[in-house]
Amino acid sequence: MPAPQSHDCAVAFCCDRNYYHLALFMVWQIAHYNPHRRFDIVISSMDDLELPDWAKALGIMFHATGALPDYAEVARFRGSLAMLYRLNLVAELGHRYRRILYLDSDMFVEGGDLNRLFEIDLGPHPIGAVLDAPFFYEANHHAKEFVLADLPALPYVNTGFQLINSGAYAEQDVARRSFEVLKTHPQAIVLTDQSMTNLALRGGFALLAPCWNWQTNGRYPLVPMRYPVFFRHFIGRIKPDRESKGAFDARFNHAYRHFCEAMRPEALPLIAPPADPMPMPLRDLANIVLRHHRGAGILRKMLTRFADPYRAEI
User: Fold this and answer.
1) ∠ CA(226), CA(229), CA(232), 5° rounding?
2) How far apart, in whole angstroms, are the C-alpha atoms of residue 93 and residue 280?
3) Contact at 8 Å (CB) between 200 and 151?
4) Neighbours of 164 (CB within 10 A)
C-alpha cells in the first residue's frame, strides 16, 4: 500500500461538498485500476470534508485550499467556485509534486496506466490536456471564448483532465495569468476556469489522446466498442448519476449506486434510480447511428492523429 506523501506525482481532485461523493467514487476506481501506483491522491477543498476510513487506509490525503481573489466571483458557475481551486494546486502543492494530474469529479475510470501517463513528454508546455468535445464533431471549431475575445480559432482544451508540469506551470505564471483574464476578458468567461486557462495560454498546450478525457459519450456511444477509453467525462448537465434516461450504458448508474450502497450510503439519495431496462426505441437508435455516421470522418482523423495514448502532441 503506498505510503502518503511518498511520491513526486499526485492525482488531485478539487471539489466542494456537493461533488465529494463523486470524487470519492473516482478515488475508489483509481485505486482499483492502479494497485501499484507511484503517485499520491489528494482531495482539495475549502469545505470541511472528512475522509472515510477506507480512503485513509489507501493513503488518500485531504488538502485545505487557500482563498480565491475577490474578483473571482465573475467565474462562479452553477453556484460554485470550486472549479477555480485547481488553479491553486501548483502554488500550494507544486513544491511537493513535480507533476499533478487534476481530474474533474464527474468522470468514470475504465483503465489507463497513470504511472506511465505521469512520464509523458509535455515539451515546454505547462499542461497536457485533450481537445474539447466540439473538435470531435465540428471540422473548424472556433471556441466561443475566442470569438468573444476577438481571437482567432486556436486549440482549445477541456480542463477537466489536466496533466500539469508543476515547474513549467510556475515558471510561466499560469495561475496569475488565468486569474488576470477575469479582469481583461470578463465577457468571455463562459466555462469558469476552462475559459480562463484557455484564454491565458491561447493554444499553448501539449495535446493528449482523447481516450484520457472522452467527452462524447452521448453523441458517440458506439465508438468505445472499438476504441479503448480510459476516462469518460460526463460533460454538460445530463450525467448518469443524476439522470438514468440519457444515452448512457446502464452500468454507469449501477456503479454509482453500488458504490454509494457499499461505501457512501448517505449519498445514495443523490443518485438517480436505475434506468428503464426496456430496449431502446428505434428513433433513438437511429439518431445514434446517424450521428456516428456523420462524425466518422472527423473521428477517424482524430483517432489516427492521437494513436498512442502515452505520447502527447507537443
Assistant:
1) 135
2) 47
3) no
4) 29
**Structure confidence by residue, pLDDT tens digits, 45-64:** 999 999 999 999 999 999 99
Contact indicator for 126, 94 with CB cutoff of 8 Å: no
Please report, for residues 4, 6, 12, 168, the alpha-carbon distance to residue 9 in angstroms, rounded to integers and kept in the order given: 11, 9, 10, 15
Region 174-181 average pLDDT:
97
Q: How many residues does the chain have?
A: 314
Cα separation, 150 vs 304, whole angstroms: 31
User: 125 near 174, Cβ under 8 Å?
Assistant: no
Domain spans, the chain: 9-212, 238-276
- Determine the Cα–Cα distance for residues 205 and 306; give it in Å rounded to an integer: 15
Alpha-carbon gap, residue 92 to 23, rounded angstroms: 20
Determine if residue 34 is left, alpha or beta; phi over 0 gives left, psi from -120 to 50 gives alpha, anything else beta: beta
Where does 71-115 show beta strands of DSSP type E? 99-103, 107-109
Q: Could you name the CATH architecture of 9-212?
A: Alpha-Beta Complex (3.90)
Pull the grid cell for residue 108: 468514470
DSSP class of 135 = G
Cα–chain-centroid distance for residue 49?
21
**CB distance 203 to 154 below 8 Å:** yes
Amino acid at 45: S
pLDDT tens profile 232-259: 999 988 899 998 776 789 999 999 999 9
